[in-house]
Sequence to fold (105 residues):
Amino acid sequence: MHSWKTSLGRLRIVGLWEGWSFLLLLGVAMPLKYFADWPLGVRVVGMAHGVLFMAYVLAAIHAALDRDWPWKRTAIVLAASLLPAGPFVLDAKLLKKEQELSVES
Fold:
């Protein structure tokens, strides 16, 4: 599993939580708001997602500075949080491989 001990591990953990909160917001809370007239779900899940989004941005910036990423990679990591499944794709395609490489070194 991922480790809180490294900046990359923290980014991966927060990214997964942020991704799930975004999917929950779009797939559950918003339909409940508009189809069941229950806006409380959007308030609660939206607040949680907002906090996780800010944590993701901070974790991404910390990882970028810690690992000396070029600006393009940092932009891709930040842009991933704007897409509903972005953090999952990013984790599978980029971050997992980078963490494996850093463990081998």
Observations:
- Residues 7-104 form one domain.
- The first helix runs from residue 7 to 35.
- DSSP finds four helices and no strands in the chain.
- The two ends are 19 Å apart (CA to CA).
